[in-house]
Write a structure and sequence with these properties.
Blueprint lengths: L2 E6 L2 E6 L3 H10 L4 E2 L8 E6 L2 E7 L14 E2 L3 H14 L7 E9 L2 E9 L3 E3 H8 L8 H6 L3 H17 L2 E2 L8 E4 L4 E3 L6 E2 L5 H17 L5 H10 L6 H17 L15 E6 L2 E6 L4 H9 L3 E5 L3 E6 L2 E6 L3 H9 L1 H4 L1 H11 L7 E9 L2 E10 L5 E2 H10 L4 H20 L2 E3 L7 E3 L5 E3 L5 E3 L5 H15 L5 H10 L7 H26 L3
Antiparallel strand pairs: 1-2, 2-7, 3-4, 4-5, 5-8, 6-8, 7-8, 9-11, 10-13, 11-12, 14-15, 15-19, 16-17, 17-18, 18-20, 19-20, 21-23, 22-25, 23-24
Helix pairs in contact: 5-7, 6-7, 6-8, 14-16, 15-17
Length: 524
């Protein structure tokens, strides 16, 4: 691309030589420009030129500074800097808006300006997903026509972000509104204002960009599993836990300061859910479940299945009711960390929507008094005729099941685990006692309070899950049987031999720690 320099008093411009008259006329004198409605704080104008339609963006300040200075930048020629980066990226064939020209004006130490690009026939990613993806995980017609799913689109986006990072570009505002989607599913990155180019990005810079994008998914109420697909497309990357927590905390503080109610995908109250507030209790229930039946189930003693330090699980007819234990500390935790205590309901509805085997949840109740959440209860359908996979495996080993039958059972279980993690969900206690089956071919995950959504599946969590599963069966079958099971859950690109060696070592350490703890707790 070649550019011509234009001057008009204090104002300077660089415009494409082949369309210099039309572009300079629009930038310098506003010829042919029409205001774009709903453009936010940055004024946008369209103008025609010989090869299509251009878009002019006037630089505006944002945040608190905007109260004092609307469009001036101290000692920073931001328009020219973004334009130079945009030209370089377009020349390197990164999908972005084609640069047409730039205008800047200096008055003392302050710069003002505009940038012109070709109009892209595309819509914002947020609008695209919001229009096309219905809440409970269905794949709408546009994706069907494109031969894609929302997750494959986000995987493509992950590859595009990786390509940008490999070029050394740190996008200061990587979020859903700065990603455009064309009619054919083409992806474009825009708005490189404040973006910087480095010889190479650090692991922390890469993670910061990805966490910034995840925050924009959360703010717009989009499926948290989409972020896992972005990470899958991006490829190997280090996502430090401390940085993950820092970005989550920053987001919560921002929501509190701004009094913002962030929409949540598969929220407590979503499609097909009825909310009742009566007698100090808030009940979230499926529309086909009667309120009287829910209240009766909570009040009925039933048969106790499990009694833990913080909860009690019992059966009441065809339902399983898990209630929290009473106590001042637990009451305060339930009140101030209510999102965490609602996780079982949210995760169950999310996984059910993504066709992952879980018990069908019926209702969730919070009992309140004086503004405090005194107790809660999760009600789900009972898994009739099921047993946990450890008991199922023990039965197979006891009757001397053939190796082909054992292999089919383990591979079916591995595929179910892969389906769980592919949604962006992570189960922190994926032992055999928390997976149920009827026939050894289909599986159900329980204890969903320990499921987190929207976090990338790190190697540390993958190793933890693999060790938990290996430990569930290692007393029944040898390495020759279990290693292929673990290998089936391992993505391509991993050194399987090294990974299996680490699984064996960690499982032995886990077993030793468990035995040591048992000896310490054994009464004398």
């Amino acid at each position: 691309m070649r550019f011509a320099e234009q001057r008009d008093g204090r104002r300077n411009a660089l415009v494409r030589e082949e369309w210099a008259v039309a572009i300079s006329g629009a930038l310098l004198r506003g010829h042919g420009c029409e205001q774009v409605e709903g453009a936010g704080r940055g004024a946008l104008e369209r103008f025609p030129f010989e090869s299509g339609v251009g878009l002019i963006r006037t630089y505006r300040r944002g945040g608190f500074v905007r109260r004092f200075v609307e469009d001036a930048y101290f000692l920073q020629n931001r328009p020219l800097r973004e334009f130079q980066l945009l030209v370089a990226l377009f020349d390197e064939e990164l999908p972005t808006a084609e640069p047409l020209g730039v205008l800047w004006e200096r008055r003392g130490p302050f710069y003002r300006g505009k940038i012109a690009t070709r109009v892209l026939e595309a819509v914002g990613l947020c609008q695209f997903l919001g229009d096309e993806v219905e809440k409970m995980g269905t794949v709408p017609s546009r994706f069907a026509r494109l031969g894609q799913s929302p997750f494959s689109l986000m995987t493509d986006l992950g590859r595009l972000v990786r390509r940008m990072h490999d070029l050394g570009v740190y996008h200061a505002d990587l979020q859903v509104h700065n990603v455009l989607v064309g009619a054919a599913g083409d992806l474009y990155l825009i708005d490189f204002d404040k973006a910087k180019r480095f010889p190479a990005l650090t692991a922390v810079q890469r993670a910061q960009n990805l966490f910034r994008f995840r925050r924009s998914l959360d703010k717009n109420g989009l499926d948290p599993a989409l972020f896992a697909s972005v990470c899958e497309g991006y490829g190997p990357v280090s996502l430090p836990k401390w940085l993950d927590n820092a970005y989550r905390l920053k987001g919560r503080i921002s929501d509190i300061i701004s009094c913002r109610e962030t929409p949540a995908y598969s929220a407590m109250a979503s499609d097909g859910v009825v909310v009742d507030r009566i007698a100090g209790a808030t009940t979230y229930r499926r529309a086909d479940v009667a309120l009287d039946a829910v209240l009766a189930a909570v009040a009925t003693p039933g048969k106790t299945l499990k009694r833990a330090e913080k909860s009690e699980t019992r059966t009441v007819g065809a339902w399983v009711v898990k209630t929290s234990r009473l106590g001042l500390v637990e009451t305060l935790k339930r009140t101030f960390y209510r999102r965490r205590y609602r996780q079982g309901w949210v995760a169950a509805r999310f996984l059910e929507a993504h066709r992952v085997g879980v018990p069908k949840v019926c209702a969730f109740i919070e009992m309140r008094r004086l503004g405090l959440i005194m107790a809660n209860a999760l009600i789900s359908e009972r898994l009739e005729g099921c047993r946990n996979v450890e008991d199922h495996a023990r039965s197979m080993a006891g009757r001397g099941a053939a190796s082909d039958e054992v292999r089919a059972f383990l591979f079916a279980l591995a595929d179910s685990v892969n389906a769980l993690t592919a949604t962006g969900a992570q189960h922190t206690d994926l032992s055999g006692k928390n997976i149920f089956t009827r026939d050894g071919a289909s599986f159900y995950f329980i204890d969903l309070d320990g499921v987190t959504l929207g976090r990338p599946y790190t190697d540390a969590m993958r190793m933890k899950n693999h060790v938990q599963l290996y430990d569930s069966f290692c007393d029944l079958w040898h390495e020759e049987t279990l290693d292929p099971f673990i290998r089936r859950m391992l993505p391509a690109g991993y050194d399987a031999s090294e990974w299996l060696r680490a699984v064996h070592e960690n499982q032995a350490r886990r077993r030793a720690e468990h035995l040591s703890k048992s000896h310490r707790q054994k009464p004398v």
